[in-house]
Design goal:
Helices cover 57% and strands 13% of the residues. The chain contains seven helices and three strands, in the order αααββααβαα. Strand 1 and strand 2 form a beta hairpin. Helix 1 packs across helix 2 and helix 6 runs antiparallel to helix 7. The longest helix has 23 residues. It starts with a helix and ends with a helix.
Length: 143
């Protein structure tokens, strides 16, 4: 299946250029990860290479500042790895979107209600499922 996909991507001129550009970005990402300390490599990503400028996104502002301080040595390391370009631009990437969920409602039971439920549960037979549920409710209930 992957052979067919590679043949299709390489068939047209525009698709071939796109595939070549994506492969080059993957190689640059590998070179970036090798050039950065491990704690920074996981927070930085090659975004694009356009007009001789490499664009790198950082996960937050602090990482972007540290990356900008490392630019001269990064340019040297990229050149030694065989990737020569004029400039590196650093941008702060957008944070990952996390689906927001409403927190579960907190239900409170007053002391009087707990006492009433406990009395009612005590009046039920010992093997009653309702009694077990009421006792659990009384134990877990917040005042």
């Amino acid at each position: 299946m992957s052979q067919l996909l590679h043949r299709f991507l390489g068939s047209g001129d525009a698709l071939a250029r796109l595939q070549e550009h994506a492969a080059r970005l993957r190689r640059l990402q590998g070179a970036l990860e090798a050039a950065l300390p491990p704690y920074m490599a996981e927070q930085c990503q090659v975004a694009n290479l356009k007009d001789g400028d490499l664009v790198i996104t950082a996960r937050n502002g602090a990482t972007a500042v540290r990356l900008k301080q490392m630019l001269p040595s990064l340019l040297t390391q990229f050149a030694q790895a065989g990737h020569a370009f004029g400039n590196i631009r650093v941008k702060v990437g957008t944070p990952e979107q996390v689906e927001w969920r409403r927190p579960p409602p907190q239900r409170h039971i007053s002391a009087d209600a707990k006492a009433g439920l406990a009395d009612f549960a005590a009046s039920l037979p010992t093997d009653s499922p309702l009694r077990e549920s009421l006792e659990r409710l009384v134990r877990r209930g917040r005042e």
